[in-house]
Structures are given as C-alpha cells and as structure tokens.
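Continuing from the previous page...

OK, I double-checked the sequence for Peptidase M23 against my notes and this is the correct one:
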Amino acid sequence: MHFTLNNRLKVIVLFLMTAVFTLSAQSVKDLEKQRKATLQKLEATSKMLNETNQSKKTSLNKLNIISKNINERKTLIKNISSEISMMDVQIKKLNDEKQKLESKLEKLKSDYVKLVQEAHINRSLYARIMFVLSSSSFDQSYRRLRYLQQYSDYRKQQVGEIEQVKTEIVHKNDSINNHKVTKVEVVKQKEVETKNLSKDEQKEKVLLTDLQKKEKKLREDQKVQQKKAAELNNQIERLIAEQIRKAEAKRAAAEKKRLAEAKRRAAEEPRYKAKSNTKSSSKSTSEERPTASTTPSSSASVSALTKEESLISGNFERNIGRLPWPTSNGFIRGHYGIQPHPVLKFVTTNNKGIYIQTPAGSNARAVFEGVVTQRFSIPGSNNGVIIQHGNYRTVYANLTQIFVREGDHVSSKQAIGKIYTDDDENKTELYFQIYNGRNVQNPEHWIAR
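Thanks. Re-ran it with the corrected sequence; updated structure tokens here:
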C-alpha cells in the first residue's frame, strides 16, 4: 500500500512538472507572437510619424502618433520582461533535467564498470566453456548457458542506454544554449526599446509644450472640427433614417397589397360557391377557386427583414468582437464616446464613431459581407459609403475615391475606397461607424483587438 501510494505521488508530481513546463513553453511562444505583433504596430506608427515629420509645423497629429508610439513601446517592454522571466523558468527547468540525466549517466557508468570487472574475471573463452561443462546436469548446463547469453545482452543494453542518455544530455545542452542566445537578443531589444521610449517621451514633452503655447489656435481648430463632425454625423443619420423609412414603406406597401388581394379573394368566395350546383361544376369550381384568407399572417411585419437580410444580420451579430478592422493597419486616434482633448484642459469631444489613422495610400475595406446602399459626399468631409448587413449598417467616411456602386454586394475585407490624406499634416484617417437600425454602436466592441 505504501509502495503504491509513493508511486502515485511520483506520477502526480511528474505530471504537474511536465504540465508547468509545457505551459511555460506555450506562454513563451504566445509572448513572442505578441511581441512581433506589437513591433508591427510600431513599424506602422513610425512610418506615419515619418510622413508627418515632412511637415515642419507642430501639430496635434504628431502628438497623437508619438503618444501612440509611447503606449505601444510600454506594452512591448512589458511583454519582453514577461518573456525574459518565462525564459529564465525554462532555462532552470532544462538545467534541472540535465542534472538528473547526468546523475543517471554516472550511475549507469558505475554499474557498467562493475559488469566489466566481473567480465574481466571470466574473460577467457576457456573459463566460460568450463563454467558450462562443469554443470552437474543438462538442465544446469542450459541455465548457465542462458545466464551467459542474458549477461551479454544486458551489457549491450547498458551500453545502449548510456549512449541514449548522452544524446539526451546533448539535446538539453543545445536547448539551454538556444534559450540563452534568444534571451540575450531579447534583453538587447528591451534595452533598445527602453532608450527609444525615453526619446519618445522627451519628444512628447517638447510637442506638448509647443502646442500649449498655441492654445487659442487649438481652440479655434477644435470648434471647426466639431462643426464638421456634427454636420457629417447629422448627414449620416439622415441618410440611414431615410433608408429605413423607404424600406419600411416598401414593406408596408407589399403588406397592403397582400391584404387587399386576400380581401378580394374572400369577397369572391360566395360567388364561387353559388356556381357549384352540380358535382361536375363543383369539381370545376374547386379546381379554379383560389385560396382565400382574411387574416393577415402573424409573421408578416412592416419592419420585418427579408430572409437573406435576417441571415446576414444574425451572422453579423455573432461576430461581435471578431470583425476585421476597416483598414489593413493603423491605430485608433479618436475613440468612441466622450474623449478629453490631448492638450486643452476641460475640453472634450463626443465621437459617434472611431477615427483610425493609417499610412498614406491606404484603402478602406468592408468589415463584413453586405450590400452597398449609399455613396455620399459632404463638403469638408470628402466622400463616404454605407454598407447594409441586415439590420446593421457600417459607415466609411473621409474617402477620396470610391471603388463600389450602390447595389453592389461586397465581401469581408473587400477594398471599397481610398482614404483621404491631409497634405497639410500628412495625415490619413478613416471615420468608421456601426449602426443597429437607427442606433449608433461602439465600433471598438465589434472589431477584433
């Protein structure tokens, strides 16, 4: 019982140690993947920063990009620190396993030395033959012969096991060295990013100081931007409300026509019955008589969607938090809802969508399959597209070129237009919204992070 319990405990401990090591290995891979993803984001924002640096004037755009760079670098440094800690755990684990293998190897060698010494005593062929022939019986001779064969096989087995353990030790050493090399590279990267973070923070401080000196100009610009945003949002809301009104009117007209037809058939029913005087005429009438219904279908509704629209709408809802971004890369410069001004105190903006800044030349792309229901143009805000996904609609504004027409069916990630680049600030920015019926949604809840 005691032996069985000890064995069980050993198995449990071994299982837990293996699970921890496997988990840490997976965590290192996950952290490495996150690090590479963050580096890609930094490359994109650095590219945008280089574009804005072509303009000599200090702008909010530069401040926004540098602030984003700072946040990304902090995330990267935190990620690298976690990765280094995980590597230390793995290296320690590998060293422990290597020490156990080395101990096992020493014991195997010691046992093998004893075997060799015993074999040395009985090394001559004559001694082995006499050992067999000196048996008192045939059975004893057979057992002695079997013993010598097993003894020889055991020696070969010991040699094979020693070689196997040696190979495992070499593999462990290789893994340890690989981890150490990777760790050195990652530590160097952390040092570089820490220095870059310090530089970015200094740039941000200088920019912020310069912009604070231009408070009057910033307030004027803020009012202009708020007015443009209000005009754009109002126009989009009117367009969507008109689309819904037309769709509801169309469905209401279809329902009215259906009810009128049902009423007409119901009124004709007595006339058909009056004609059924004979069996033959009754049979004829029954073949000609249409089905009458005076009760409207309970499933019919003025605001109901078509089957296709309902299907798309349901699929859209199921992808909340997983929709692709409306740009291939970039960052959210203006978040949804009430947001503080980056420089001006006590000044806020109420965004009904999100502003995604992206490198120059980027295209806007559909976040889900749907139908293009509107192309629109607003002075000061360029062009836009509305795509319907059942009861949902997505809006893409600030486009210079539009690649789709009204009525076109689009697929997920299909390019729908080129995003406008402001030449003064070298800023390329998409305004993106999501509506459920007439109600605006927070796009950040819908798109993948």
